Amino acid sequence: MKPYFFLIFSLTAALITLSCKDSITNPEHSAGRRDYVWTVDTLKSPFNVLFGLWGSAPNDVWAVGSGASSIDRLWHFDGAKWSIYNKEPIFITGRALWGSNKNNIWMVGGDGEIWKYDGNKWSKNFEYKIANTYTIIVADIWGKSSSDIYAAGLTVYDLQNFKAFILHYNGQKWSEELVVPNNKLQFIRVQGDSKNLFLVGVKYNQPNPDSFFVYNYANKALKKIYEATNISWVDVNLIGDRAYIVAGNDVYEFENNYVRKIMNFDGYNFGQAIYGRSKNDLFLRMYDGIAHYNGTDIQYLYKFGNNFTSWRGRVLDFGNEIFFSVMDIVNNKQMMLHGKLK
Predict the structure, then answer these.
(1) Comparison of pLDDT for 122 and 5, the residue scoring more
(2) pTM for the full model?
(3) Which residues contact 221 (CB under 8 A, 6 or more apart)?
């Protein structure tokens, strides 16, 4: 592996417009560091996009995608190199990973399947089945603990009829938690904290998304907290103790059941995703790299060679080390960007 030392490309302060400036500049957290040393690994897995990323430590990282084949869609990093996991065939078309420790890792994906790694091998643990369906996709997974895990996705009846669902694991078995009686909605994201569970849903007017929704889920009921139309993407992330909603080029903060816009990236190369440890330590997905906001300004931490290369899926953060799964669409290259603080 060849290390690449970080190169900072300054952006002007005008890159960001704050509708509630005090909510960002409030010095409740120290400015995030930027002195990373970067390593880029190219993974030879044709037609695979590794959306799923999870690890118990920087020397125990897993990545999975829904492309490729059963012998090269799941990868593992041991701290020195990435390699294809090939102890047994991985028949699931994986989409997301979550774990509570190195011997308790879950993978979700196509055909309603949920797989589990027990420290020795991967095997199918559960299959969600509904009669008379075309396919069932478990799109995402997240857990509060090893005995309180949620998965969400969609049941496809035909190209015009979907139903969103939530599954729950109680430490012993998976069961159906909720089915939304709407034939156009599908869940694409589940994320939570100790008190809240958030879901991102989308309705499609084929082939394009028609509208996006963010829900807060509790007591088997969905409460809509955000809705948007005529945009290309919506995502939700927890930063500190608050949920941040990214809707197109806008970023909203959810607090005390109220959503307010705090950032806007119109006219810039924003890739419609953020990750952060605090308000002063935010990573911004750009279409050509990764930028950082430290409470004062925005700078690129790493820049790629074209406008079609950016991270996919969740960021994996260990504090002093951070991993991004990156796809270069132009060159069909799947890469892992690994940063270490000096």
Answers:
(1) 122
(2) 0.90
(3) none
